[in-house]
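Tutorial, part two.
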Amino acid sequence: QVRLVESGGGLVQAGGSLRLSCTTSARTFSNYYMAWFRQGSGKEREFVGAINWDGNSLYYADSVKGRFTISRDNAKNTVYLQMNSLKPEDTAVYYCTSGLTSNFVRAVVVIPTRYTYWGQGTQVTVSA
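Running the prediction step on this input gives:
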């Protein structure tokens, strides 16, 4: 079983920034790609972005492209989500998850039902 713990959420004004972190217990972190999803109140969980094992390939949702950046530190078993120019519509609980590197294809990584393990989530609230 893989344990994931997100942190870094909070309340921020529109236009502000936050950096989320997700630390995993996976023994071979570098065997996994990492992905971020979010779920707004009353909405379905949606894909935000993903990063492959070495950080050289990334996918982003169109809604966050150019504003959000994913990075990872394999020595710390941690993935980050830097969120800039935040908008009220970014308000959601943000979750991280992981998948096997061999499955790092956009059509696969964007589907939330393909993942088994999730963190508890961290709330991001952006005020207008």
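The beta strands are 4-7, 10-13, 18-24, 32-39, 46-51, 58-60, 68-73, 78-83, 92-100, 122-127. In part three we will examine how such features are distributed along the chain.
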